[in-house]
Structures are given as C-alpha cells and as structure tokens.
Amino acid sequence: RSGPGRLRVFRTDFFGGGEIRKIFRILASEQMICRMNEVWLRRLRRLEELPGPVWVFGAYVVARAARWAFERSVMLVKGSLDWQTLWVEGLVLLGVLLPVAVLWLLVSGSSRALSLARWYAGLRAVLHFVSLLYPLVVGYGPETVSEVGHEFLARGLVSVAVGCGLWFVFLLYLERSSRLRAVLPAGQRPAPWWAVAVLLCVLPFAG
User: How many CB atoms lie within 10 A of CB 65?
Assistant: First the structure.
C-alpha cells in the first residue's frame, strides 16, 4: 500500500505505538548507566587517592564482614543458628555494618566521614583499653584459670593490648594527617548526634 494511507499507517505505528517512548526509555537508561559509571569512576579515583592507613582500615572492614558472613553461613547450613537469639545476631550484624558505613563515607568523600571515623576509632580504642584493664583490676577466678590456662589468658591480654595500640595510632593519624584532609572535601562537619548515639549503643555489645 502506498500514498497517504501508508504514511498514516506509519505515523500510527511509529508515534501511536509508543516507539518514541521506547527510544526515550533506551536513551534515558543509557544516560543513567553513564552517570552511574561516572560516579563509580570518581569513587575509584578517590579510593586510589586515599592514604595507606585508610586502606588498612578498609582491609580490616572487608575481612571482618567476610568472616561474619562465612561463620553465619556455616551455622545456617549446620542448623546451629539459634533463632531465639535473633536479636543478638541483628545487633552483631549492626556492629559489622557500622565500619562498612564509615569506610563508605570515606570513599564517597562525605563531609562527615572524618568525624565519624574518629569517633569509631576512638571508641574502639577505649573499648580495648577497658577490656585490657578489667582482668588486671578484677582478676580471673581460679576456675577460669584452671579451665583455659595461663597461656591462653596471656595471649588474650596481648591481643587486646595490640588492638588498643593500633586503634589509638589510627585515631592519632585521623586527627593529624594533612594528606587525608587534602583528599577529603573541605569543610568537614561534625558527626550528627544520632550517629554518635548509635556508635555508643552498639559498639560496647557488638564492637
């Protein structure tokens, strides 16, 4: 068929059939993909610019999250996951996700990233220090010593002391590093009160 009738059919099929809308959807999806790629490229470049201690912190965060996922997967497969204490597992999961959120804010260049990282490192150092002082002040009962042995208790104290020192050093780095402040955006703001409250409530139980 030719002539005006065929042109009218073409217009009906092309415009009335939603072909234009399909093209716009494709273009919009391609633009969205390009924007997402640009965002990820910017974050990858920022990740490359972050100094070494932040990379060490990131390795700790990833290793801890992977260990938690592996242990819970094994418990789920063996059927040893106690669903009656699900709220405890949720609290532990929140404790695992907190450093992930801090690391994400550092990589994304948030204006509150440095303050939250300082709060997290400082609280971890304080918790390790309290854990170190508690057995030295209170002491261990004879049943505990006979059950686990002096060597195991000594290794635990050394591990806690090393952790306390490392978190304190990381806190000092966050406070004094000019290179980190140069990488992060200017005008860093303090952490919101509710984020600090979450850290104070969760870390002592699931830190």
Answer: 16
CA atoms of 61 and 99, how far apart (whole Å): 6
Helix residue ranges per DSSP H, 50-149: 52-78, 86-108, 113-138, 142-148
- Are 118 and 174 in contact, with CB atoms under 8 Å apart? yes
Q: For 156-199, write each residue's pLDDT tens digit.
A: 778 888 888 899 999 998 888 888 888 777 777 888 889 889 88
Question: In whole angstroms, what is the distance from residue 54 CA to residue 122 CA?
Answer: 15
For the record, the structure tokens of 150 come out as 């002096």
Q: Which helix (H) or strand (E) holds 115?
A: helix 113-138
* Residue 174 near residue 121 (C-beta atoms within 8 A): yes
Amino acid letter, residue 195? A
Distance, in Å, from the CA atom of 203 to the CA atom of 207, rounded to the nearest integer, reads 4
Angle between helix axes 52-78 and 150-176 (nearest 10 degrees) is 140
